[in-house]
Design brief:
Elements lengths: L1 H4 L14 H13 L1 H12 L2 E3 L7 E4 L2 H10 L4 E3 L1 H11 L8 H11 L5 H5 L2 H20 L4 E2 H18 L4 H4 L2 H17 L3 H6 L1 H28 L6 H7 L11 H32 L1 H15 L13 H13 L6 E5 L3 E3 L2 E3 L4 E4 L1 H4 L19 H5 L19 H16 L2 E5 L7 E3 L3 E3 L4 E6 L8
Parallel strand pairs: 2-8
Antiparallel strand pairs: 1-2, 3-5, 4-12, 5-8, 6-7, 9-12, 10-11
Length: about 475
């Protein structure tokens, strides 16, 4: 039984998993289609799976109780794996994404108050404003019948929201430089993360110069804005003001410029790529499920009534949020998380040695048929309060869990509700026929091929002012 298999046993043993010829036969799938491979070994071997011991032991943990043990109960015994942090450090320095120990605890304590519901609500008008600007631009494209690359549109939108909410509108000209630079840096880090051999890393050498140049641009723009803001210390109501004014509740200290730069970069990157990726999948899923789309459109029309959304509308956009949560279940942007135990641990009766690699995959856990009936179906009703209360907390963890739960989850959920409602009230997005659909697990779980979609005005589309 799943519940029983997570209880520690008196004599921990090595987890089951593919070995010998079975392991070698699975290598092409593991390297070429890791999503399929991980689901397959979870079905065959159970809640904890050994994925090889030749160089460094790797263990896949899929059951919610095991995930909870790693991310929450025994979180102090684990650190982020060097396999990921070393690739991010040249870009994000010592920000929350990669820091550990006392530095991480201090930064988390200092930055937490910047992401309270009250602080995020001040950013709501900017989210709606940037989305409205996109819809105005779409109007001409839709009138010409020109398809949209919806993935690029969502990235452009969420980067605009991330930049505007971080820096406000007074530096929008400078933030135009950030978009191409951030994406160049991200592509390089993504290729590094997915490189499996030294030769692959060698082939990336020509791209290092572009990565360094992009990083220099980002650092220069952000530091210039930080220095300008330090001159006045006015609270402009954006995230940068919140970070500049933040003080540690224990020490009374704020952040110096170097640490602030790293944190701003981390927020910008996390604030646009992940949400844009999920939204891209949402529009595809809605095109494939007309009944869900029609219900979403009806809620948007009823709640918004032809106007731009207000904060008071958010609690009424119930189904809109459920649609986004279900898309997060099927296509979690962070599809894999790696942890390294600092000391031996025991998960499900199996010994997990220190300095090994523990792999957690929301994509796998959130599609376990034992936890999610019809796991591959798109059913937003799974996220009614009643059905959510029946599930284990870690059956669903697209934002992680425990002490390192993503601080930006509230921002992402608010942003998604705004975007989904405003677009659904105006347009039906229809996939251009004949396109291939396949997930590509890079840094985030993206579509392998671009989604070309037509923006079709809804029958009672109203220009929102």
């Amino acid at each position: 039984m799943l519940q029983e298999s997570i209880h520690p046993s008196p004599s921990p043993r090595r987890p089951p998993g593919p070995r010998g010829l079975r392991f070698l036969r699975g290598l092409p799938d593991m390297l070429g289609n890791p999503l399929r491979f991980l689901r397959k070994v979870a079905r065959e071997y159970g809640d904890v799976v050994s994925l090889g011991h030749d160089v460094r032991p790797i263990y896949l943990v899929v059951h919610p109780m095991g995930v909870k043990q790693v991310l929450q109960d025994n979180a102090a015994r684990y650190k982020k794996s060097d396999l990921t942090t070393q690739k991010f450090k040249p870009f994000l320095g010592q920000g929350l994404v990669v820091s550990e120990g006392a530095l991480w605890r201090g930064q988390r304590r200092l930055m937490g108050p910047c992401f309270t519901r009250q602080k995020l609500e001040r950013l709501f008008p900017l989210m709606a404003q940037v989305t409205q600007e996109m819809l105005e631009r779409w109007r001409e494209l839709a009138s010409r019948g020109q398809p949209l690359d919806i993935g690029e549109e969502m990235k452009r939108l969420t980067l605009g929201i991330a930049s505007r909410t971080m820096f406000s509108t007074d530096v929008s000209g400078e933030t135009d430089l950030l978009g191409p630079a951030i994406r160049t840096a991200q592509r390089y880090v993504a290729r590094q993360m997915t490189s499996m051999t030294g030769l692959a890393n060698y082939l990336l050498i020509p791209q290092r110069a572009a990565f360094r140049q992009a990083t220099d641009v980002i650092n220069s723009v952000v530091l210039r804005i930080i220095h300008q803001r330090r001159q006045s210390l006015d609270d402009k109501g954006d995230l940068l003001s919140a970070l500049l004014l933040a003080q540690d509740s224990r020490t009374g200290q704020g952040m110096d410029d170097a640490q602030l730069l790293d944190e701003v970069k981390g927020i910008l990157v996390a604030g646009f790529e992940s949400t844009a990726t999920v939204l891209t999948w949402v529009w595809y899923l809605l095109d494939q499920h007309p009944a869900v789309r029609q219900r979403l459109e009806a809620e948007a029309r009823e709640v918004l009534g032809g106007s731009a959304p207000t904060l008071a509308d958010l609690p009424r956009l119930v189904y809109t949020r459920q649609v986004f949560e279900e898309a997060l279940r099927l296509y979690p942007p962070v599809w894999m998380t790696l942890r390294t135990p600092l000391e031996d641990d025991c998960i499900g009766g199996y010994r997990i040695p220190a300095d090994s690699v523990v792999l957690l995959s929301p994509y796998v856990t959130q599609r376990l048929p034992e936890l999610w009936p019809r796991p591959d179906d798109f059913e937003p009703e799974r996220f009614t309060p009643e059905r959510s209360a029946e599930r284990s907390r870690f059956a669903y963890f697209p934002f992680g869990g425990g002490p390192r739960t993503c601080m930006g989850s509230g921002f992402a959920l608010m942003e998604a509700q705004v975007i989904l409602a405003m677009v659904a009230a105006r347009y039906r997005l229809a996939l251009v026929p004949g396109q291939r659909v396949e997930p590509l697990p890079l840094l985030t779980l993206q579509p392998r091929y671009p989604f070309q979609m037509n923006a079709i005005p809804t029958a009672d589309s109203v220009l929102m002012g």
